[in-house]
Design brief:
The complex is a heterodimer of chains A (382) and B (160). Chain A is an alpha+beta fold and 382 residues long. Chain A has 11 helices and 7 strands. A 5-stranded mixed sheet of chain A has the order 2-3-1-4-5, with helices on both faces. A two-stranded antiparallel sheet of chain A has the order 6-7. Chain A starts with 5 loop residues before the first helix and ends with a strand. The chains are: A alpha+beta (382), B alpha+beta (160).
Chain lengths: 382, 160
């Protein structure tokens, strides 16, 4: 089975990391969006129907009623108000929860009924009536309140404990997810750097593979690659051979020969004004490649090259016919492409050969001729 | 000119007295005051009981038992008297409880007038009270789930 591409493996770590952080955000959102409102709803009961215990409110009305009757139980207005308060107290007392869970509720409600009847019928209300019909229900309501408070406190304590445990779990979960996210991110970063390093090394290797280590200019492979990258464009190729380079090396030694090669590479580049790409084809042969639509450009470059070298007057101690280093230069034009570069190279080489055969220290340009079968511009000797 | 001044003063006092007395609606468990845009409408509890046309039985969480309910769809009552359903209503109850709540454009809210065939009185948390006919899956054992129910309604004001 084929292994997954490197980029996909990196994306996997990245996704895992992003998913972890997204999960963390969701957890935080859940905590704030759902859990806190729940706590708020639980503890913020003030102002609504059950915010204050119904038993407490009922007891308040009974106490007001008791106060009115103790003040003057014969006063009609007091009896009327006390009756009204009793009704309100009854409505808040007559709750299913109280009836079912507190045995004192039903007798208390019955006692309130008895007092109501007395108040409505105009009968006198005695202290024993108040004790039986108001104080006993008030005691019952107080008992209910206390018990409900205890229950509420224990429920609150349990709720707080649950919330605390939940918060702890969320905190631990968040930390784990955060650490996972960091780990995934670190893995992604490690792989990304590793891939970057590998790419950089590949590029460096490719650059080295395409360049001449001595002079720093391109090599033969680079020339072919550059030509193929310009497919279809008219180009000029100049081959430059150093005359009697072997004698130079033999006389001055290879280190000086290497230095001469570097100097000449720089000189050729400067002479062509940086417009041409330079290559070392091997030994003492250089090539220059540039966009070239007509022979005028080609001859101009050749003249400048030979002239520039003469002007530089680099000393050659063992040159048979001159005191300075000389070039033999052959040039040709071609249409970029595999066939074109082969033809161009062959034509330029033949032109170079003719210069050498003619005594060296000179240049020649091959004539251009279009070959119809493949569209490439082939070159023939001038 | 000076002789007309006592009459003007008397007329002003009479007018002020009438202005102060006019808008105050008498509070009585026999009627509900509905206020909207500064206008007060007195609803007779007796008439509301007569108009009550919705009947159903449900488990009343506060009574912790199944009861027969009769009443009116509160939304329809508001529409009939106010022309529309105000967004928020402020309720005042006989036990001095008051609260402002919204969400009344819902036929689930019933203004209860009778319970188990009997008209509601104060001791049954009347003369009218608001309940939800269908309270879904809310736990009736937890009364906090029914905090929006309003008892002993005395006065309803549309909040502008």
């Amino acid at each position: 089975m084929k292994p997954a591409p490197r980029w996909r493996r990196h994306l996997g770590w990245l996704w895992l990391s992003l998913m972890s952080f997204t999960l963390l955000m969701l957890l935080i959102a859940y905590q704030t969006r759902w859990v806190y409102p729940e706590i708020h709803a639980y503890f913020s009961q003030a102002g609504n129907l059950t915010g204050q215990q119904l038993a407490t409110r009922s007891r308040d009305y009974l106490q007001e009623s008791l106060d009115l009757l103790l003040e003057d139980s014969l006063n009609e207005e007091n009896r009327h108000q006390a009756h009204f308060q009793l009704e309100l107290a009854y409505s808040l007392f007559d709750i299913g929860l109280y009836r079912n869970e507190y045995s004192c509720t039903r007798p208390s409600l019955a006692a309130l009924d008895e007092l109501k009847v007395k108040l409505r019928s105009g009968q006198g209300v005695l202290a024993s009536d108040l004790r039986h019909s108001l104080l006993a229900p008030i005691r019952c309501l107080t008992e209910i309140e206390m018990h409900q408070l205890d229950r509420r406190n224990s429920v609150t304590a349990a709720f707080v404990e649950d919330t605390r445990r939940h918060q702890g779990q969320v905190l631990i979960g968040s930390l784990v997810i955060f650490l996972l996210g960091l780990t995934f991110w670190w893995m992604h970063e490690r792989h990304r750097r590793s891939a970057e390093r590998a790419t950089r090394e590949s590029l460096e290797w490719m650059t080295r593979a395409l360049s001449d280590p001595l002079t720093g200019v391109g090599n033969r492979s680079a020339l072919h690659q550059d030509v193929l990258a310009c497919e279809g464009q008219p180009m000029g190729l100049i081959l430059i051979d150093i005359d009697f380079f072997k004698q130079y090396n033999d006389c001055l030694g290879h280190p000086d020969g290497d230095k001469l090669l570097r100097d000449l590479a720089r000189l050729i580049d400067e002479t062509l004004g940086g417009q041409a790409r330079l290559y070392r084809m091997g030994g003492d042969e250089f090539a220059a490649l540039f966009d070239c639509a007509d022979d005028g450009v080609l001859t101009g470059h050749c003249e400048r090259l030979v002239g520039g070298l003469r002007e530089a007057a680099l000393h050659h101690p063992d040159h048979p016919s001159a005191a300075t280093v000389t070039f033999s230069v052959g040039a040709a034009r071609f249409i970029a492409g595999q066939a074109g570069v082969d033809a161009g190279y062959a034509a330029a080489d033949q032109a170079l050969y003719r210069v050498k055969a003619g005594g060296r220290d000179g240049w020649q340009v091959a004539e251009a001729k279009v070959v119809a079968d493949n569209g490439d511009l082939k070159l023939e000797r001038s | 000119m000076s002789s007309s001044r006592p009459f003007i003063c008397l007329a002003a006092w009479l007018a002020a007295g009438l202005l102060l007395a006019a808008p105050v609606a008498a509070a009585s468990p026999d009627q509900i005051v509905l206020q909207h845009n500064g206008t007060e409408i007195l609803l007779s509890v007796h008439e509301l009981r007569e108009q009550a046309d919705v009947e159903f039985s449900f488990y009343d969480p506060y009574l912790a038992e199944e009861v027969e309910i009769r009443g009116l769809i509160f939304r329809d009552l508001l529409t009939a008297h106010l022309g529309d359903v105000p967004e928020t209503l402020h309720f005042y109850a006989w036990d001095e409880y008051d609260v402002a709540l919204g969400g009344w454009n819902d036929d689930n809210w019933i203004l209860v007038t009778h319970q188990d065939g009997e008209p509601l009185s104060l001791r049954e948390r009347g003369p009218v009270r608001l309940v939800e006919r269908d309270y879904g899956d809310r736990d009736p054992g937890n009364l906090r789930n029914f905090n929006d129910w309003i008892w002993m309604i005395k006065r309803i004001e549309a909040v502008p």
